Amino acid sequence: MRSLQGLARAIDRLNESIGVTVAWLALALVLVEFTVVLMRYVFGVGSVKMQESIVYMHATVFMVAAGYTLLHNGHVRCDIFYAAASPRRRALVDLIGVALFLLPTCVLIAWAAWPYVAQAWAVREGSPEGSLGIPAVFLLKSIILVFAGLVALQGIALALHSVLRLAGLEAAAPTPADAAEGGL
User: Fold this and answer.
1) What is the distance between the alpha carbons of residues 110 and 101, in angstroms, rounded to a whole number?
2) What is the mean pLDDT of residues 119-135?
3) Where does the pLDDT of residue 184 fall: very low under 50, low under 70, confident under 90, or very high at 90 and above?
4) Helix-helix angle 2-43:48-59, to 10 degrees
5) How far apart are CA 26 and CA 42, in angstroms?
6) Where exactly are the structural domains of the chain?
7) Which of 20, 40, 146, 171 has the largest CB neighbor count within 10 A?
């Protein structure tokens, strides 16, 4: 069981470090967007590469940090029963949710995206704007697979934490409702 706990914590650390790192892209995103607007409306100059970089950064922030969001329980959840449930029941709901919904969805996303991403890589797909744009649409599309992989990994960590909680080997994690009530 210690090795399961170690694996779950390693996945948690991976998504934590990725999420914290990728969060800095939000600042870059705002600065680039500001620069694009300033260049266009003040100086009358445009840059396709800068405009496309906004799409790349936006996709990276939201898709690559999805595992981080799951780690911090930030995804939308129907809290009607979950919030009032005991820690044991929450662990069971998390375990069942990961097994029946999260992991199959991640597998489906990866399976459906694979040909799309592979085709983009096969032709080294570039910008629809030609040489004016970023010649790396194939990398942008690859973020779909990164998303599915990181969310699936975090789902596995969530399932492992749930198993450990059900076995009484790990304390229940506080919920956002607990934090709002001063339970932290």
Assistant:
1) 14
2) 96
3) very low
4) 150
5) 24
6) 2-174
7) 146
Tens of pLDDT, residue by residue over 67-111, are 999 999 898 777 777 888 899 999 999 999 999 999 999 999 999
Say how far apart CA 62 and CA 182 lie, in whole Å.
29
Nearest to 149 by CA among 118, 93, 105: 105
Please name the residue that has the structure tokens 């399976």: 111
Amino acid identity, position 117: V
Give the model's pLDDT for residue 183.
Answer: 47
